[in-house]
Amino acid sequence: MTEQVETAKAQTTESKICLICHKAVNASLLKCPDDGGDLVNTKQDRLVGQVFANRYRIQSIIGQGGMSTVYKAQHTYMDRVVAVKLLHPHLVSDPISVQRFQQEAKAAASLSHPNIITVFDFGVTEDGLAFLVMDYLEGPSLGDLLDRTGSVPADEAIDIFRQVLKGLAHAHRKGVVHRDLKPRNMVLAVDEDGTVQVKIVDFGIAKVIPQDGGESQHLTQTGEVFGSPIYMSPEQCSGLPLDLRSDIYSWGCVMYEVLTGVPPFLGKNAVETMSMHVNDPPPDFRQMAPNVVIPEELSSVVFGCLEKQQKKRYQTANAVLEALPSIGNYQPRATQTGTVAMKLSDMVQSTTSASGPAQGRSKTPRRTKKQTIRISTKTLATVFGVTLAFMIGLVAFFPFQTAEDPGSPLQKMIWQFEIWLADYCVVHQWPGMALSVLDKAVVDAKNLSGKNKRPNYEAMIVTLGRQADVLLATGDAAKQEDVIDEIVKLDRERWEGLANQILDDILEAQTYIKEIEQRGDSVQRHLSESRLNWAGSTRRIVEVARRLDATYAYGLEYELLVHSEDLLTKLFGRDFIGLADIKEQIADCLLNQDRVAEIGKRDLYGRIKEIRFTHDQEAHREATSDPKYIRAELHLGQWQRDRGEFDAAEKTLSEAIAHAEKCKEIGPDQLAEFYGSYGDLLKQINMVEKGEQLSKQASKLRDRVSEECTLNLKTHDFRTKH
Predict the structure, then answer these.
(1) For 113, which of 7, 170, 333, 634 could close a Cys bridge (C-beta 3.0–4.6 Å)?
(2) Which of 180, 444, 476, 616 is catalytic?
(3) What is the pLDDT of residue 218?
(4) Measured distance CA(317)–CA(473) in Å, rounded
(5) Is 180 an annotated catalytic residue?
(6) CATH of domain 15-135
(7) Rounded to an integer, what distance in angstroms lies between the CA atom of residue 632 and that of residue 646?
(8) Is the domain covering 603-716 a CATH 3.90.78.10 domain?
(9) What is the architecture, at CATH level 2, of domain 142-349?
(10) Between the CA of residue 41 and those of 17, 67, 358, 543, 567, what are the distances in Å?
């Protein structure tokens, strides 16, 4: 090659190519996961580690197809990560292949939409290698998500459907027909605000329809078939002329698979699958996924897209978009760990998306059958009865008592046995029996209570969590949603109960303080008494407040925090170190409620910095080496910047960066926040060049952390159970 090449160790990518769809898959697979096609091995790629076209350093192979190879690369001058698609060298001499490759560049470059991948460079090297450069998208494909989840709940799937249809409508308005819509050509990424953005990729066989209706080019001959057989329209399978309605049919196939976990048509081979597209009606949802709940209005949209005759289908992507039902506002739901449960962003983030070839799942139509029970109910009842009798006898001989959680020893032993038995049934693939056992365990968990009748929330949430897992495995989405809602309700009830207990104790302590003061005594002399021994309670209070924050109980959270602040100040003084954590949580609580003015009135961020500085001085420690003090500087500077106090913010943030750079306990991901905050400030005060430099430093640090995380994922053994 004549372009500049820097010596680097070439990497190898172990993968295979499907002879039918030409997709790169993992080398461990024997058949293509999409169409069952035979696979052939690929060879090492010498471009990896080299600089291509004088400006793109090739890092790794993302995927390979029949016409091209896609690489992950970095722009050597802009430090931007991109995807470089390179036409196979042996096709360069084929004018039709080159024209098709150029057609993809033109088709994609003519599109500009948030839900379509951006192509921003196309060229041919001096050696005649045709390439195009596009955005590098980090995130799993929709196919990867389906591999992990099997299907997507209807209310979450609609978010995906709307985004793809918006992008598809834009492409169709520009006269571009994709012709290869499938789950693996849609990439999902979670934005910083937690929303999931979907992008359509791979316009490799896209067709441009001119405005006058004539053919803009003759790159396809009559009878030629392009696309993935599982998602091809009847006219595409027959080699007939295509228009945008072919994409509507393919999208109907994708929607069907997203909702049920299986495609509508899947034969023993590609020919049989294509024949089914032409001749067979799509199977009813209940036939393919009897336990999945799909609203009737959504079902009619999917089957409206799957009409065999073009004139009977939806005629435009906008028409499909308008016909999609609205399933209300999807509110985040918190789990017992305080995280959001069953949200699309969680599903995407939990999906392992390696940069190499896809592992894929075996696409065999799953017709749900009743599980064969290999052990009789009578035998199971006998085993259960004998074990239960043994435990009762054990408790009778050893009448021990435990106080860790509510419930008598016998009640807890019965419940624990039921959980063990349910797990045993799951391991042996008896989900129906597991659900029966768990129904009994839920009742017993709810009956666990101590002398004060306090519910055993831990046991109840554990039991319901097991129940939700089994329901997920059986595809009963409706019941699973009900169980998750109950878990969320119990979790909020648990933390609200703890918060109210702490508030009662605080009020009792404040009443006791008044009694002490009324008799002229010193409160400090009584700090060792249990009612006033609050020095070590800060962490517990903040943790409970954070749980309340996760369940949106802001009113109770605020009451807990301000009463704690008043009590701790009275007991230990205004510079007590525990008050720094309390005030930080108060600031977060007020921000969540948009009560920004109160933060300023209370000077929360300024006081946090003062308290940490005083604490470090008293401990004979340099405050500028304390990561908590340095973060307090950062938060104060961010607050000053957002309030328009630019001079004060510039001083505070510059000092925070100087201290953070010297502190070994502040890692690169945290340091990126310091650079980003200061860079943003400098841009606001017209120091744009310096601000951009700091923003780039922040991006480099984030990329470094991301690369380390990716490397850890690649080397991690996911087969190990934790």
Answers:
(1) 170
(2) 180
(3) 32
(4) 33
(5) yes
(6) 3.30.200.20
(7) 17
(8) no
(9) Orthogonal Bundle (1.10)
(10) 6, 16, 15, 53, 70
